[in-house]
Structures are given as structure tokens and as C-alpha cells.
UniProtKB/TrEMBL annotation, chains A, B:
PROSITE patterns reported for this sequence: CBS
SMART domains: CBS, MgtE_N
GO MF entries: magnesium ion transmembrane transporter activity
Residues in CBS domain copies: 144-206, 207-263
Pfam families reported in the protein's UniProt record: CBS, MgtE_N
Gene3D superfamilies in alphabetical order: CBS-domain, MgtE N-terminal domain-like
Protein species of origin: marine metagenome
CDD domains for the chain: CBS_pair_Mg_transporter (cd04606)
InterPro entries in alphabetical order: CBS_dom, CBS_dom_sf, Mg_transptr_MgtE_intracell_dom, MgtE_N_sf, MgtE_transporter
Name of the molecule in the record: CBS domain-containing protein
Listed PANTHER family: MAGNESIUM TRANSPORTER MGTE
A GO-annotated cellular component: membrane
Length: 301, 301
């Protein structure tokens, strides 16, 4: 039943795309690309032929939406798509993505191509990406978002709200991380607590001082465990001097849990950790992205 | 390595409890109960004998903390613990829990005892619990939190923040759900968007109108899929007339994904859906709560 419902929605989207492709209705395809959620677009993409994929992708703008779509797509498909693209177009798209997605997309490319794209980016951006790519695979460092919102412990709740209103970049803000004179992470405040505090109160007086944090080397399973155990929405990543490097958010943790579950299944099925060999057909692909559907399917054999 | 780290922390907590129990240091035990996170308390509890469990539980207050601890505990343990308790104490604890946890705890009891406890609660609360317990097992209805924060579409952002400041009850607020004159769900605003909007703007003008919602009968796997696919922090549950019944939050979805993964493992291992048979020893228990550890353990055989 569930499965059918999901397939039903995706089937409608797929058929709409196919109809527009047949009619070569480019204006409508561009509209549909913009209107479709990046995650849905990534799901439906697996149903298309190589030619259809390239045609649809060529009609997408170099926007954040396209960057998000690529980060939702499986590595093998990203590599296929981008291998036919100019370095300039790839760089233009990557520029719009958050740092952790940037390294994901670059990791999917062949090394030579990835380095060539990297060279087209601004020096500051290159350094940030290089840092993230330097962390061990499947660690908090590769998972974290480096655009974090921090405030000094001595400012007031009222000023904090004003500062927040000027910050357009930092996405997914639920917690405000508080730092001291030495830029060390000393506390955390939920956005809700900030909203409901009298505006003259100093952040120091309302912050929670015992902050659960991880190090960039911490394995993503450990990060997932902490987030799941304590119902956190995000966990901060700090260096040995307690400087805040980034945060891992719950939406990425959800992906980790699903991914780990799949890996463990494949291991049990004797396929080893190398998921790529199973990512040949679009069907297998869909299953890897949906471990619980995959699970009931295997269970039913 | 990860496993050791986790065990290490839990071992320290367990040894501290054991030392205090041996010394019959009740004041210290009460302090430790209060200081320990409910999720950690539930984990460490599985290491204790029946007698130790009863002694520790007898020193816990009838607070929200204790209610949360019970909701984190496995059903078999909840039943064991509460079978020796008076109906009045159980009712006093249950009163402090959110509705979905209330039905979880009652579901763990034997039916006769659950009904007797239910009768001690206020009529309004009885009705709410009865409604939740009426939804199908593993559905959005049994998973949802009914304490939701709604606002009328015609009020301003400034007034919305003021109203929010008076609401102490509604936990985990990330989204504000917006209703029309007929009390129908017509939009949603993130807390962040509200904070960063000029205070005279009407909610109608900043709300997102296309709200993804589910019905109380929707299976929890479908809810998990929606939350994971779109990176939501919560998904609203509505009735056929679009009235908001509650929300399912991402922390509960994380639990669902882990639980489903475990169920699928057990099914593959030939144990069927009946997890309870595997919940006899505290070790098995711990593994059921931590599917990925369980998975690597099975994988290693």
C-alpha cells in the first residue's frame, strides 16, 4: 500500500517528464525542473535513459536548486551526468552548494576532473573544501555544515535577534552557539528560548553550558547515536581548542542511519561494503535510497 | 572503537549506581536520577537486577523526567516496573507526559491495569488518550504530539512572537502552523522566518501555503519517508476537513527508522515481527535499541 502510494506520485512525475520530452516542450521542462523538489527530481531521475537525463539536466540553471539535486543523486549518476559537462558549468553549480555538499559532488567525479573544477573556484572556497575533504570518510568532519551562527556570551537577547535578522546565509538554525573572548564554544541556546526571553537578558545567563559536541574525526555512526539518543536537532563539531568548526544537522543524521542500515544489509547479503557494484540499474539505486522498502522486499523473498 | 566509547560512558554510570546502591546512599541516588538524561537512564537500567531497578525507580519523583524515562524504556521493562506500583503513582507520572508517550506507557501495561490508571486521570486527558489509542498501530496517529502551536492567518508577526512567549507547553517548536476562520490548516512558517520578518507583516503574507501533511491512519514508514525525503523537522497530521490533529517530529521519526531497520533484521533472521521474544535479557534489549551496533555485531559473525 505504502509502496504503491509512493510509486504512484513518482509515476505521475515520470510520465509528465516523458510527455514533455517527447513533445520537446523545453519551456515546460524548465518550469517543471524548477517546481519539482530536488529530492523528488533525484528519485524520478533514475527512471530516465542516459539521453533523457542529459537533456533534462542541460535545461537546469546553475542555481542552489540544481546543487541540491546533485547532492541528492547517487555518486554514479552524478559522475555520469557531469562527465559530459564543461568545467565552468560544474564550478558554477558547485559554488551555490553548502561546503559538505560541495565535497560530496566533487568526490563523485574522477579525481582529475574534480581538481580541475576546484581550481576554478575562489581561493577561500578551495581552502574550505580541501579542509572538509581532508577529514576521514564517514566522519563528522565530512558531514558537517560550516555555515554556523555564533554569538558572543555578553550580548543581550534583543541584540541577538537583531543580528539573526541580518544573517541570511546560515540555514537550518535551531540552536545559537555561544562563544567567549577566546572564540571557544561555551554554551548553546535554542531559537525558541531566545524568542521567549526578555530582550535585555545577557545570553550568558540563559545559555545551556554543558554542550554535547563531537570532533571532526568522530565517526558518523557515533554522531547519529548522540543525535538519536538525546533527540538533538544538531550537534556541534569542535577542534581541540573548543573552537566551533561546524554543525551536523538531524536531516543529515537521518540519511546516515538509512545509509548504515543499507550497508549492513548488503554486508549480510555478502555484498561487502562496496555499494557501487549494486548501483548499476536504476531499480537497485532506488532501493539503496529507500532501505526500508528494500528491506521488506528482501524479507518477502 | 565507537562501541567501546559508548560502553565506557555507560559503564561509569552503571558502576556509580551500583556503588551508591551498595552503600544505600539514597540522597545521592535521588541526585543521580535527576542529573542523568532519561535516555541514558533507560540504557543503564537494563544492566540492573529486578530488585535494583525497583529500588532506583522508587526514588524517582512523579515528574516529566520520570515520564520521559519510562517512554524511553522497552515495553517489557515498563510492565515489570509498573506492575509493582500503585495506580495513583502511575497516574501521577503519566499526567506529566505528552499524549503519545502516555499511550505508549499505557500500552505497555496489562489491559486491566491500564484501564484502572486511565480512570484516575482527568476526563479531558482520558478522551485525548483514548483517541490516540484508537488509531492503528504504527500509524501517524499514535506517533503524533497533540500539543501543537497554531496561529490565525490574519495576525501579525509581532503578535505571533508575543503569543509564542506565553506558550510554555508546546515543545519542539520549529514550525508555526497557520489556520483560517474555519480552523483549517492553510499554511506553515518556520520559527526562523517569523523571527526575521518585520513585526507588522501579516502571517498570511509570509506563510508557505503548500503544506505537506499526513492523515492519522498514515503508516509510520510513509511519515518517515516524507520527513527523510524533504528534510522536514516535523510533519502535520490532519483530519479529512484539514483540521490539525497533531505533528510528528523528526526525533520520533529517527526512532521509527531505527526500529524498522531492527524489525527487518529480525525478520531476515527468521524471528518474525514479534520482537518481544528477543527482549528477555538486557543485552538483547540494548541491541534492539541500537540497531546499527546490533547490525555490525551480526555482520561480524
Amino acid at each position: 500500500m505504502r509502496k504503491e502510494m509512493f510509486n504512484h506520485e513518482i509515476n505521475i512525475l515520470r510520465d509528465t517528464y516523458r510527455r514533455l520530452l517527447r513533445r520537446q516542450a523545453k519551456t515546460n521542462l524548465i518550469k517543471l525542473n524548477k517546481k519539482t523538489h530536488p529530492a523528488d527530481l533525484a528519485t524520478v531521475f533514475r527512471y530516465f535513459t542516459d539521453e533523457e537525463q542529459i537533456e533534462i539536466f542541460s535545461l537546469m540553471n546553475e542555481t542552489e536548486h540544481t546543487a541540491e539535486f546533485l547532492s541528492e543523486l547517487d555518486d554514479a549518476l552524478v559522475n555520469d551526468l557531469l562527465s559530459k559537462e564543461t568545467l565552468e558549468r560544474i564550478a558554477a553549480i558547485i559554488e551555490r552548494a553548502p561546503t559538505n555538499d560541495q565535497s560530496d559532488i566533487l568526490n563523485a567525479l574522477e579525481q582529475e576532473k574534480a581538481l580541475a573544477v576546484l581550481e576554478l573556484l575562489e581561493v577561500e572556497e578551495q581552502e574550505e573544501i580541501a579542509e572538509i575533504m581532508g577529514y576521514p570518510e564517514d566522519s563528522a568532519g565530512t558531514l558537517m555544515n560550516t555555515e554556523v551562527f555564533t554569538l558572543h556570551e555578553e550580548i543581550t537577547a534583543g541584540d541577538a535577534i537583531k543580528t539573526l535578522q541580518d544573517q541570511e546565509d546560515a540555514e537550518m538554525v535551531f540552536y545559537l552557539y555561544i562563544t567567549d573572548d577566546d572564540d571557544r564554544l561555551v554554551g548553546v541556546i535554542s531559537l525558541r528560548a531566545l524568542t521567549t526571553t526578555p530582550s535585555k537578558t545577557t545570553l550568558k545567563d540563559i545559555m545551556i553550558k554543558n554542550v554535547h559536541s563531537v570532533r571532526p574525526e568522530t565517526d558518523q555512526e557515533e554522531v547519529a547515536r548522540i543525535v538519536a539518543q538525546y533527540n538533538f536537532l544538531a550537534v556541534p563539531v569542535i577542534d581541540p581548542d573548543s573552537h566551533l568548526l561546524g554543525i551536523v544537522t538531524v536531516d543529515d543524521v537521518v540519511d546516515v542511519i538509512r545509509e548504515e542500515a543499507t550497508e549492513d544489509f548488503l554486508q549480510m547479503a555478502g555484498a561487502g561494503k562496496d555499494r557501487e557494484i549494486l548501483l548499476k540499474s536504476s531499480w537497485e539505486n532506488a532501493k539503496t535510497r529507500l532501505p526500508w522498502l528494500f528491506a521488506s522486499w528482501i524479507g518477502g523473498i
